C-alpha cells in the first residue's frame, strides 16, 4: 500500500480536464467505500445523504458534490468537490490499478510438495499459495492473489480468483471495474464442481471462505464476501458481493442473497429464498422476498385455508 497518495495530483495525472475543488487536503493510502472500516487511511466517495451518518473513522479524503459539501465540512477529513463523485472514484480506482500504484507485491507461486494438482489445472505463476494435502482436480483455474489452506479440495471446473461482475454505467459508456484484491480459502474447505469464487475489488480486501466450510456445485461467491467457518452452501446458491456469512450457517438450494447483507451465526436460509435483508444469529428465513420461516408458514396456511 502507498504511504501517502495526494488526490489532487492523482486527478491531474489521470485526466487534466477534470474540474475539482479541494479543501483541507490530506494524504491517503487506499480507496474504499465510505462505510468500510479498515486499517488504512482511505479516500471514498459520498454522493448521497444516506451515507453521511455512517462514515467510517479512517477516512482521509472524500469525493463529493457541492450540494453535500456543507453537511461534511465539519468533519476532520479533506473534501474534493466534483460533478460525479462515483464516476470519478471508479475512474481513479482503475487508473491506480493500471498504473500499478495500488497493486500487491509479486511473488512466485508456492505449492506444497504433497499437494495433488491435476495436470489439466491452470494456476497463475505468481501470487498463489497452495497448502499441504490440497487436492485440485482437472480444469480448475486458480488466478493471482489466491491462498488455499491445508487439506482443502477444489473440484473439477471451478474458478478461484476470477474477475467479479462490477460495472458502472454513466449513461454513455459501461466501465469495467478492476479487481485488485484476493481470495483466501481456509483449511479443510471443499469447493465442488463448476463453482466460482471471485476475488475482491480493492487491493487491501479478500473474498474469504472459512475453515471447514463446504461449497456445493454451481455456487457463485461474489467479490469481497466473508464466509465464516463450517458454513454449508448448497447447489445453485448465488451470493451478492460483500456479504458477511456467520459461522455454522446453512444456505439452502438455489438461495439468492443481495449484496452487502449480513447472515448471522447459525442462520438458516431455506430452499429458494431470496434474501434482501440481514438475517439475525440463528434466524431462519423462507420465501421471495424472504421473511422469518414461521411467519412464512403461518401466512401460507392462512392463504390455503382461504382458498
Structure summary:
The protein is an alpha/beta fold and 307 residues long. It has helices at 7-14, 66-72, 85-98, 293-306, and strands at residues 21-23, 30-31, 42-46, 59-64, 78-81, 110-111, 116-117, 122-123, 128-130, 135-136, 141-142, 146-148, 153-154, 159-162, 167-169, 174-176, 182-185, 190-191, 196-198, 206-209, 214-215, 220-221, 226-227, 232-233, 238-239, 244-245, 250-251, 256-257, 262-263, 268-269, 274-275, 284-286, 291-292.
The main sheet comes to: 10 strands, mixed
Number of domains: 2
CATH top level label of the largest domain: Mainly Beta
Backbone structural class: alpha/beta
**Overall strand count:** 33
Radius of gyration in whole Å, from Cα? 21 Å
Describe this structure in words.
It is built from four helices and 33 strands. The chain is an alpha/beta fold and 307 residues long. The chain folds into two domains: 7-98, 3-Layer(aba) Sandwich (Udp-n-acetylmuramoylalanyl-d-glutamate--2,6- Diaminopimelate Ligase, Chain: A, domain 1), CATH 3.40.1390; 110-296, Hexapeptide repeat proteins (UDP N-Acetylglucosamine Acyltransferase, domain 1). The chain has a ten-stranded mixed beta sheet. An eight-stranded parallel beta sheet has the order 6-9-12-17-20-23-26-29, with no helix packed on it. The longest helix is centred in the first third of the chain and has 14 residues, at 85-98. It has helices at 7-14, 66-72, 85-98, 293-306; strands at residues 21-23, 30-31, 42-46, 59-64, 78-81, 110-111, 116-117, 122-123, 128-130, 135-136, 141-142, 146-148, 153-154, 159-162, 167-169, 174-176, 182-185, 190-191, 196-198, 206-209, 214-215, 220-221, 226-227, 232-233, 238-239, 244-245, 250-251, 256-257, 262-263, 268-269, 274-275, 284-286, 291-292. The termini are far apart. Helices cover 14% and strands 29% of the residues.
